[in-house]
Design a protein that fits this description.
This protein is α+β, with helices and mostly antiparallel strands and 288 residues long. It is 48% helix and 12% strand. The protein has a five-stranded antiparallel beta sheet with strand order 2-1-5-4-3. The longest helix has 24 residues. It is elongated and about 85 Å long. Pfam families: HTH_31, MLTR_LBD.
């Protein structure tokens, strides 16, 4: 949202006024006033001095006139008004600027993890916008070449496609599959350009794969909600899965991806994978 929008300008103005009126001079390191004051909270002159802007400029902002603070001015206002992280993010958004994202460990609600298991025997997994695979069921693990045996960092759709040699030749019609994944990543990058982990992932892929670098330079952008993926699995041969991508309402940065067999041959291959997985688990238990 930009302050060229009347709604954003009005909201920014209200935020600045109310926050200024809620603070006392001692809250921001100024000497307390002596005697009564007709101005609730801080004066505009005081906030303007703390933020390093003119009183006229602050007045225009508080009156919702057409002024758009730069990032530096917006940050100075946040500091002058002692805004917390959430308030700061809100002010920067109203001023039309991206908010640097906090470093967080991606968490998947237990209910979604359980849902992925409940979808079995259809392959299912949960990914984030970086296409890190965060949760999966047994048949998805088997389909993606023993996904659960890979290090957490390697469980990323793009790293698997471009940096893991086991996936060379895995997708029949590879170009369509991997270009779709890259176009999806570029869409995510546009919405999360301040995510340092995402920037590191893109740099790693560009340095490690000329194929990825070429697709990335194409600047294709697309978010695929459904489609088909023909595969050549080393254990069960050729199969094709159709997929659907769903967004949990509580966290739109997560995606639930569900595969289903596109034909009878593919269903038989998935059934064999599930059976193989069960047999391997039983064999492991007997060894233990």
């Amino acid at each position: 949202m930009s302050t060229t929008s009347p709604v954003a300008r009005q909201e920014l103005a209200a935020l600045l006024r109310r926050r200024r009126e809620a603070l006392q001079p001692v809250d921001v390191g100024l000497a307390p006033r002596i005697g009564a004051s007709r101005t609730p909270g801080l004066r505009r002159e005081e906030v303007a001095a703390l933020a390093g802007v003119s009183v006229d400029y602050l007045t225009r902002l508080e009156q919702a006139r057409d002024a758009r603070p730069s990032v530096q001015v917006a940050e100075a206002l946040c500091a002058a008004l002692h805004l917390d992280n959430d308030q700061r993010a809100y002010l920067l958004t109203l001023a039309g600027h991206r908010v640097p994202q906090r470093d967080t460990v991606p968490l998947v609600p237990a209910s979604l993890v359980q849902l992925v298991d409940d979808i079995y025997p259809r392959p299912a997994m949960i990914v984030n916008y970086r296409l890190d695979i965060l949760a999966w069921n047994e048949v998805m693990a088997a389909l993606l070449l023993d996904l659960d045996e890979q290090p957490a960092r390697s469980r990323n759709v793009l790293r698997m496609c471009f940096l893991d040699p086991r996936f060379d030749g895995f997708y029949r019609g590879r170009e369509d599959v991997v270009l779709g994944a890259v176009a999806d990543l570029r869409a995510a990058w546009a919405a999360h350009a301040t995510d340092i982990e995402l920037a590191h992932l893109i740099n790693e892929l560009e340095q490690g794969s000329a194929e990825f670098a070429g697709y990335w330079r194409s600047r294709a952008v697309a978010v695929r909600a459904r489609g088909d993926k023909p595969m050549r699995h080393p254990a069960v041969g050729d199969l094709t899965v159709s997929f659907d991508v769903l967004n949990p309402l509580g966290d739109p940065d997560l995606r639930l991806i569900i595969y289903r067999a596109a034909n009878a041959q593919s269903q038989n291959a998935l059934d064999n994978l599930a059976l193989h997985r069960i047999q391997e688990a039983d064999r492991h238990l007997r060894v233990l």
